[in-house]
């Protein structure tokens, strides 16, 4: 009985560790809505090990640089802190101007030069969300290639961009960690029978 409890404890610890890692991401969804291109984002980031570069004020700087893997969603007058980390890969072939979009919600941006911006004073684990819309645009306007684009930082945190009608790929690590525990439980049960 004690071994069974130990196996369950190991499985629970692995699941908890995976859940914490999986939650430290910002998911960005890019889709065509009517005649407009709409980005929605939400999630959390872990800033452990990240270097803060600067603080700045953004004046209605909302748009996308599909060619550079950048997305900017800064409502007018947003104060942001910038951090160094790898940007997303290119997800299209053309860029909008920096004032092409209309943003609501929290300030958030992935610049194409390995820098990203978060609301000033952001603390690891704080939830952010928002929307950026470019009117009268679609995937062809920016040569956007539908797909899943990810960038994971050294600390396990990062970004996931879902462009078009795609689903995020679930992390298979949970199954890999749980398989030995479940297998041991099955073997133990067979030995008793």
Instruction: Give the neighbour order of strands across the main sheet.
Output: 7-10-2-1-12-11
Mean of residue pLDDT values: 78
The tally of beta strands, per DSSP, is 12
**Any idea what the radius of gyration is?**
20 Å
**Biggest sheet record:** 6 strands, mixed
Helicity, as a percent range: 10-25%
Beta content comes to 35-45%
State the helix count: 2
Uncertain runs: 1-22, 171-179, 181-189
Report how far apart the termini are: 15 Å
Give a written overview of the molecule:
The chain is of the alpha+beta class. Helices cover 22% and strands 38% of the residues. It is built from two helices and twelve strands, in the order αββββββββββββα. The chain has helices at 2-23, 173-192, and strands spanning 25-33, 36-43, 52-58, 61-65, 70-74, 78-84, 102-105, 108-111, 115-119, 128-134, 147-152, 158-163. The strands form two sheets. A six-stranded mixed sheet has the order 7-10-2-1-12-11. A six-stranded antiparallel sheet has the order 3-6-9-8-5-4, with no helix packed on it. Helix 1 runs antiparallel to helix 2 (173-192). It is globular. The chain starts with a helix and ends with a helix. Mean pLDDT is 78; it is low at 1-22, 171-179 and 181-189.
Task: List the main descriptive attributes of the protein structure presented here.
193 residues; alpha+beta; 6-stranded antiparallel β-sheet; 2 helices; 38% strand; disordered N terminus
Question: What order do the helices and strands come in, and which of them pair?
Answer:
Layout (H helix, E strand, L loop, with lengths): L1 H22 L1 E9 L2 E8 L8 E7 L2 E5 L4 E5 L3 E7 L17 E4 L2 E4 L3 E5 L8 E7 L12 E6 L5 E6 L9 H20 L1
């Amino acid at each position: 009985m004690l071994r069974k409890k130990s196996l369950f404890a190991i499985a629970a610890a692995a699941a908890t560790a995976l859940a914490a890692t999986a939650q430290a991401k910002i998911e960005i969804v890019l889709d065509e809505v009517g005649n407009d291109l709409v980005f929605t984002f939400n999630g959390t980031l872990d800033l452990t090990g990240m270097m803060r570069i600067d603080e700045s004020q953004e004046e209605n700087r909302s748009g996308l640089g599909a060619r550079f893997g950048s997305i900017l969603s800064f409502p007018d007058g947003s104060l942001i802190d910038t951090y160094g980390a790898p940007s997303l890969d290119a997800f299209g072939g053309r860029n909008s101007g920096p004032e092409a979009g209309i943003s609501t919600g929290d300030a958030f941006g992935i610049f194409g030069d390995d820098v990203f911006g978060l609301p000033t004073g952001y603390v690891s684990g704080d939830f952010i969300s928002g929307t950026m819309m470019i009117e009268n645009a679609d995937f062809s306007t920016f040569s956007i290639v539908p797909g899943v684009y990810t960038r994971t930082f050294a600390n396990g945190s990062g970004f996931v961009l879902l462009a078009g009608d795609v689903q995020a790929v679930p992390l298979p690590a949970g199954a890999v960690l749980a398989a030995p525990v479940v297998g041991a439980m099955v073997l133990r049960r067979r030995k008793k029978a």
